[in-house]
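Researcher: I'm preparing a figure for a lab meeting and need a structural model of a single chain. I don't have an experimental structure, so a prediction will have to do for now. The sequence is pasted below. Please return the structure as tokens so I can convert it later.
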Amino acid sequence: MQLREFIDNWAQGKRGQTKYLISELASHWVSEAWPNLSDWEKEELAEKQTKRIRNLLGSIDQEFQEKNIPTPFTFDSSLDYASTIFRYDDPFWKPPKWAKELFNRTNRINHVELILKTLSLLDAKNSLAFELFSAELLNLLGYQVDVPNQRTKDGGVDIFGFYDGADNKTMGSLKFRILGQAKRWTQKIERAEVELFYQQVEDFKHQTGSAFRLLPEKFKTSNLPVYGIFCTNSFFTREARFALDKNSIKSWDGQQLAWGIVLYFDKWFDENGKFLAEQFAAYYQARAQSFHAEL
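Model: Understood. Here is the structure written out token by token.
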């Protein structure tokens, strides 16, 4: 569904059609941005984005009515739409919050490559900063995860925690434990790396391996099922993706992580949507150093 059709229908007052278009637009966008998510994860994320868009449209409707500004506009893109509002010929006109946010988020898209570059340079000496970032993103998506106090060997577990579908209102109230690997890598992830991590997950299920020895007792003794998540700033080879699917391991590659930052890390963008790369890197480097100091 094209964004122009969505904007046109809203501007012309076709509320019934707009409600359908918002849902369809959100579902299509989530499927393109995160193709590897399960159907229930896509549905949950699309529902959140749909509610967000509806709330924002409601606020701008009120602003237009108060200023007696006509709304039957036609725009080619969301950026054109926001820019037109900013340029509206009225010295007392202040752009509504919805327009500001739309302008900001549209500009963020232009910084995806910079985000990818920043992730690739994050914590060159060790991977802890990248692990802390990956854990924070998963928490923003509804997981309850952390990084272990004791480090496992390479190919092991960097992130652990729980997912409770009841807390996130997902269908079926699905609950499970998470074992994750966060690999900051300069090359594509090969199948061997996926298989190595999968073996760690299987060892944990059989109550053996470094992860089982080092993780907290409460996590180990839970009777919830265990699933693996593999996060990387890089990308997976075709063979690696085959191994991920075969072994039911969820994956987040660099492109998906970058979009996660665009969507959920508001604090790392200025008011114009520019990614604050240096501040982002410095923050996670400092967190990694602090984490080491506390051990």
